[in-house]
Amino acid sequence: MPVNVMRLELVEEAEGKADFAPPQIALEQVAVLIRRSFLTVAEELHLTSTNCPRHPAFLSDATYAQQLFSSKVQCIGAFEHDICQPDETKLIGFVAIWPLRRGTWELTRLCTAPERRNEGIGRLLMEAAKAQALQQGAKRIHLGIINENETLKRWYMGQGFRAGRQKVIKGQPFTMCAMTCRL
What we know:
Strand order of the largest sheet: 2-1-3-4-5-6-8-7
Distance between the termini: 31 Å
Shape: globular
Order of helices and strands: EEHHEEEHEHEE
Number of helices: 4
Structural class: alpha+beta
Strand content: 35-45%
């Protein structure tokens, strides 16, 4: 099925179909996708809501609302469109970006529905995020990942990111790795 990647507007509850860009999407849909996507990573790395309560797989809708309902945060979604039912769309990927400091943007919550991985959706989201940030004056994008997730680190390196400082976060069962991509 065709996939479209576009900027979107998060709302507490979607109010029907919008015929304008950016389309509206309910926060709950985004939160469910993020949790489902990040849960596979949490399980792989033996993270739980007890040993890592701030991991994206375990955050509440309220926490996502606090993080994503900011005027500076720009959200991008990947949608699957059913040709047989043109009014039906399904959110299958998501990423959020915002200006961190002059010339540097933060990228977070890049995720693809687990059943749709390895189809290039993450790459499409990354390209859209880079283009959006570049259009608004960014010179680089920064993100943080779990250093022990070698598969993800290699993927980001394939998208032009370089691994930087590593930091042990007190109370977390992993090391964080800062990554940066020059635009």
